[in-house]
């Protein structure tokens, strides 16, 4: 087949391309935002959605727990279980 020729050919080719685009599944998925509507996080990363979630009582205690203890004993086996840290919150000054 040769090239299309004529006065109104550009509009015709452009129209055909537009029609073919609408039938392309990958194009639809990328441009129609249906994946974002179906996604509970709305396209945001998973961590971002969890970060915005409300803190539960155990998590609040965990944040108030002594961070140095967790950092120092993260690689070696700790004598004090983490569950005790969760149940006993420690007040920490925030700067």
UniProtKB/TrEMBL annotation:
Region (Disordered): 1-21
An annotated GO cellular component: ribosome
Keywords associated with the record: Ribonucleoprotein, Ribosomal protein
This protein's name: 40s ribosomal protein s23
Organism, scientific name: Lynx pardinus (Iberian lynx)
């Amino acid at each position: 087949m040769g090239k299309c020729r004529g006065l109104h050919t550009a509009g015709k080719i452009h129209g055909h391309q537009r029609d073919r685009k609408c039938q392309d599944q990958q194009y639809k998925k990328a441009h129609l935002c249906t994946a974002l509507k179906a996604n509970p996080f709305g396209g945001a990363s998973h961590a971002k959605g969890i970060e915005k979630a409300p803190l539960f009582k155990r998590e609040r205690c965990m944040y108030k727990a002594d961070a140095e203890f967790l950092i120092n004993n993260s690689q070696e086996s700790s004598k004090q279980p983490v569950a005790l840290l969760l149940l006993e919150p420690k007040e920490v000054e925030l700067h």
